[in-house]
Specification:
The protein is of the alpha+beta class and 250 residues long. It folds into two domains: 141 residues, Jelly Rolls (Sandwich), CATH 2.60.120; 103 residues, Winged helix-like DNA-binding domain superfamily/Winged helix DNA-binding domain (Arc Repressor Mutant, subunit A, Orthogonal Bundle). The protein is 46% helix and 22% strand. Strands 1, 2, 3, 4, 5 and 6 form a six-stranded antiparallel sheet that branches. A three-stranded antiparallel sheet has the order 7-9-8. β8 and β9 form a beta hairpin. The radius of gyration is 18 Å and the shape is globular. The relative contact order is 0.14. The C terminus is likely disordered.
Length: 250
């Protein structure tokens, strides 16, 4: 059963890990439906379990000392929640919650460590994911410091588009403002700017990607480096444009 099931897994890490590791993990995996606002990890709380996301969108949110918050990372089907347990840290530095409903596979930290303890290739795969996630966080810092609000918004929309199998993204102005750390009026202006270029169509509670190529042009260098590194390290297309190219080549 695990051997036939692995190619069907929605999570990229589960799909690409060595077959013997997947066979060892599979009996310990529990399928979860993850509604919007489900908290997957609490800031400063012990990591008790891991979740391999396979659908939906989660956000890692950092808070300042005066309770201001900004998004540190996007997480979707390319990700595993709770990687701090692999690093012997034990606690999460940020809160992770579902922004768009989805699903995933949960495994206890103890079961994960026990089953992959002797599987060097799988541990290397998960640590490569950790590296790609750190790079994404670094580029979020770069984007916040060096790019305009509409360029940062374009990056955010591209990253969301990468993780969902549709062009309609269920996003509100309030959510976007919170995640980008700007005023709601700034998000409205940025959406109008991007929409005027023909990249998106924004309506109440939804942003439709009309031209991904235009959206990438708007984002400029704020988008693409972490995504390319993930693809190099994990061997799975993460960017929607790359995925379409792979499908065409086949």
């Amino acid at each position: 059963m695990p051997k036939s099931r692995q190619p069907l897994m929605g999570n990229y890490l589960l799909r690409t890990m060595p077959a013997d590791s997947f066979a060892a993990l599979y009996p310990h995996l529990k399928f979860l439906r993850l509604p919007t606002n489900t908290v997957l990890a609490g800031a400063g709380q012990a990591v008790q379990c891991h979740v391999f996301l396979e659908a939906g969108l989660a956000s890692a949110v950092a808070r300042s000392g005066d309770n201001q918050m900004v998004e540190a990372a996007h997480l979707g089907r390319e990700a595993m929640i709770g990687h701090q347990g692999l690093l012997s840290v034990g606690t999460s530095p940020y809160e992770i919650s579902m922004q768009i409903e989805g699903s995933g596979w949960q495994i206890s930290g103890e079961a994960l460590r026990r089953t992959i303890g002797g599987h060097h290739a799988t541990m290397q795969l998960l640590l490569r994911f950790v590296h790609a996630l750190e790079l994404q966080i670094i580029h979020s810092v770069v984007a916040n410091a060096r790019y305009s609000v509409h360029q940062r918004l374009a990056r955010w929309l591209l990253m969301t588009h990468d993780r969902l199998d549709r062009n309609d993204l269920p996003l509100t102005h309030e959510l976007l403002a919170t995640r980008l750390g700007v005023r709601r009026a700034g998000i409205t202006d940025a959406l109008h700017t991007i929409e005027g270029l023909g990249a998106i169509r924004a309506t109440r509670g939804n942003v439709q990607v009309v031209s991904r190529a235009t959206l990438e042009t708007v984002a400029q260098g704020s988008y693409g480096v972490p995504e390319a590194e993930y693809e190099r390290l994990i061997g799975v297309p993460l960017r929607r444009g790359q995925l379409a190219q792979v499908s065409a080549d086949r």
